[in-house]
Amino acid sequence: MFVCELKRDIKTLTGVGKKTKDDYANLGIETLSDLVQMTPRGYEDRSHRICIGRQNETDGSWTNTFVKVESVSEFGSGRKNVKIIVRDTENNQKAFLMGFNRTYLSKTVFPGCFYHLYANVTVYGTGLTASQFELKPVREEDLIAGDLALDQGILPVYPLCGTLTQKALRRDVKAVLSSIGHIDDEIPESLIQKHHLMPLDRAFREIHFPSSDKALSEARRALAFREVFYLQLEAKRRPQAARRRQAIPSRIYEAEKHFIEKLPFSLTDDQIKVLDEIRKDMSGSESMNRLLQGDVGSGKTLVAWVSALHAICDGAQVAFMAPTELLARQHAQVADQLFKDSGISVAFLNGEVHGKPRQALLDQLKAGNIDLLIGTHALFSKDVEYRNLRYVIIDEQHRFGVEQRHALFEKGIEPDVLLMTATPIPRTLALTVFGNLNVSTIKTMPKGRLPVITYLVDDSKRDKMYEAVGVEMKRGHQAYFVYPRIDDEGKSDLRDVETMYQFLSREKYPSFRGTLIHSRLPEDEKIRILNDFASGKLDYLVSTSVVEVGIDVPNATCMVVEHSENFGLSALHQLRGRVGRSSLQSWCFLAYEKTITEDGKKRLSVLRRTNDGFEIAEEDLKIRGPGELSGLRQSGFLHLKFADLEKDVSMMATARDEVDAILAQDPGLLSLENSVIRKVLSIG
Ligand code: ADP
Ligand code: MG
After folding, report:
1. Residue 108: in which H helix or E strand, if any?
2. Exposure check for the chain: N or C terminus, fewer CB within 10 A?
3. DSSP helix/strand/coil, 478
4. 272-311 pLDDT per residue, tens
5. Cα 380 vs. chain centroid, distance in angstroms?
6. Ligand 1 site-directed mutation target among 305, 321, 552, 573, most atoms within 8 Å of CB
7. Separation CA 325–CA 334 (nearest Å)
8. Could you tell me where the DSSP H helices lie in 454-588?
9. Ligand 1 proximity of 331 Cβ (cutoff 6 Å)
10. Ligand nearest, relative to CA of residue 549
11. What is the pLDDT of residue 519?
12. How far is the C-alpha of 248 from the C-alpha of 318, rounded, in Å?
């Protein structure tokens, strides 16, 4: 069985209910296959004892040892924090464990008892301290008898969402790995031999629960090879099929000129340049395959609309794909507005429309009565047939992976493709991956934009921040308040949306109109709220990160992010990009808790220092350092799960050579040796 054939829904796992399913869905995990193919974002090496004081901060290793607890005391306002003093049973070193907001510790940890400690002990002042730690009770007799092993192996650390915990994820992944059968290899046997690749079945098991560092790196290499192999194969097969049409002279249609003149602003030089590049591509003899990069708010979407109009004037149907439902709807509304007098028919397709209305829409599409179809990846579902799809625009291409490309191929379509991204990709890397990908860049922001001013806000400055936002709202401007969670069930102290909304609406802004928006609301409700916000009926939104990507409300001037230390750099940059979208001065407040780590502080200071998305992406890479997910990969560029655009450049070249050799010898992939490729392609 191939891994992608594990189509069972994640909710069929014991212990996965509706809520957990939603959290998984937010991580892009819906099936067992997705779960198995999820990459840990790091590992905890608990394979041997590391006594207190012996941890190596530079390689990030944590203390992994047995301790005796000397004392447990509560401190801080409301006695919410717990201080535990422990001593290592081997070297007698002392450490202070600071449990911020972990009151339960004083009821579960007892002086005189023994524990297994896993902690990020660091030198703080004159002592050794840890604020992130796990204590598990052990029996003194077992300890003395030497019956206890510290070897828990190397444990995966996964990206989390909502109420998911590492423990739950590890349990679920383990359960799946032990219940499924053998995972088949996906590349020809001869290549596996030649490049000494670990069999896929073992690689998937090792990537989650490595038996050693060496096995882990071999597993990663095998998975990355498989990934880039198919990426290259896709890239190579594409132009062969594409070189079909006749070149025509590039032109600008009257309708385009008219459309541009009617805009309330003039295009920036970069927008004009990019549009020229796109028009040239579209009139060339090969299909366009272009990446449009530009920082958030630089006006990429507008370029997309003009280019769509161009293609439609050429007689094409256009599909515009957004990464989320919400964004797709917003785009559809904007397009309705923009194209309303132009005789162009715009439609919105989503996965939730069923039955007759869907059929009616699909019939119109097939008949060619719809020029521009906007939606999520539902645009390429099996039942969707186009009459003449010649142009596909993909906004913030998070999810446009190899799978969607397949879907297009299967429809026998070779459209022009424009990928838009706010995450800058070095050109050399892009070229290595897609031989024939062209890159356009919008460097300048629209005229009159003022850089967003960013403040880092700790507890002592929080009231000032609320005051400043109040002043902005009095001026008729709008604000976002973003929190990492939906509701607080007492498990954590994160300022959650619901309680904070109560607090803001009652205590801080009783005279302003605000509302709550989060991912668990029905789609219709969300879109209604965003419309009210966009039309100025609401002064502020309190939300989870649903506003992260693409929402465009130029009158909003304040972005407040609570627990900003819990967000990644690129997510924060995207959030900040929601303001500063007009000539008004805007502000971004990044509020953080005192439990913030050193890395967290470094991350936030990068945002304070610069508004440049390119610099932020690079800093992100530096801070994460080697061994962790690369910022590019995490941002979803190309949807790479295992390979690393920077570290695996030579592997990509190797894979490309192999692909070239295969396609040269066996273009139809008909040989027995290549039958596995054919199978994978038709299943994927
Ligand atoms: P992106 O997709 O790159 O994040 P958008 O296309 O959404 O950016 O543009 C952000 C905002 O700037 C939108 O409100 C858009 O109407 C506006 N905008 C786009 N181009 C210009 C321009 N040349 N001058 C002024 N405003 C512009
Ligand atoms: Mg955009």
Report:
1. helix 105-108
2. N
3. strand
4. 999 999 999 999 888 888 889 888 788 999 999 999 999 9
5. 21
6. 552
7. 14
8. 462-474, 497-503, 523-534, 569-576
9. no
10. 2
11. 72
12. 19
613 Cβ below 6 A of ligand 1: no
From residue 258, alpha-carbon distances to 253, 262, 341, 418, 598 in Å are 9, 6, 11, 23, 54
Interval 560-577 mean pLDDT: 86
Q: Two tokens at 546?
A: 């649903």
CB neighbour list of residue 32: distance below 8 Å, 6 or more residues apart: 6, 7, 8, 9, 10, 12, 13, 176, 180
Residue 639 has pLDDT above 60, yes or no: no
Q: What per-residue string of b and e applies to 91-123 under the rule 16 or more CB within 10 Å gives b?
A: eebebbbbbebbeebbeebeeeebbbbbbbbbe
Q: Convert 553-573 into a string of H (helix), E (strand) and C (coil).
A: CCCEEEEEECCHHHCCHHHHH
State the DSSP H helix or E strand holding residue 180, giving kind and residue range, or none if neither: none
Q: What residues contact 511, with CB distance under 8 A and at least 6 apart?
A: none
In this prediction, residue 174 has a pLDDT band, given cuts at 50, 70 and 90, of: very high
| Rounded Cα gap, residues 22 and 8, in angstroms | 16
Strand pairing report for 556-561 and 133-138: unpaired
- Distance (Å) from CA 395 to ligand 2 centroid: 7
Chain center to CA of 139: 43
Ligand 2 center to 154 CA (angstroms): 40
Alpha-carbon 446 to chain mean position: 27
Q: What is the DSSP string of 616-664?
A: HHHHHHHHH-TTS--HHHHTTGGG-SS--TTTTHHHHHHHHHHHHHHHH
Task: Count other Cβ atoms within 10 Å, centred on residue 243.
Answer: 11
Q: How far apart are CA 679 and CA 684, in angstroms?
A: 9
Residues 515-530: what's their mean pLDDT? Answer: 83
39 CA → ligand 2 middle, Å = 27
Strand 122-124 vs strand 114-119: parallel, antiparallel, or unpaired? Answer: unpaired
Q: Is the Cα torsion angle 124, 126, 130, 131 positive or negative in sign?
A: negative
Over the chain, what is the mean pLDDT? Answer: 84
The answer, yes or no, to whether any atom of ligand 1 lies below 6 A from the CB of 446, is yes
Q: What value does the mean pLDDT take over residues 83-106?
A: 91
Helix H or strand E encompassing 605: helix 598-609
- Cα of first residue to Cα of last residue in the chain, in angstroms, is 13
Helices (runs of H) and strands (runs of E) counted in the chain: 24, 22
Among the residues of 243-354, which ranges form H helices?
254-262, 269-283, 300-313, 325-338
User: In this predicted structure, what is the pLDDT of residue 633?
Assistant: 39
Mean pLDDT of 517-532: 83
- CB-CB contact of 528 with 515 (8 Å): no
Beta-carbon contacts of 506 under 8 Å, excluding residues fewer than 6 positions away, are none
Sequence-distant (6+) residues with CB within 8 A of 272 are none
β-pairing, 416-421 vs 389-394, is: parallel
Angle subtended at Cα 466 by Cα 464 and Cα 471, rounded to the nearest 5 degrees? 95
Contact call for residues 316 and 392 (beta carbons, < 8 A): no
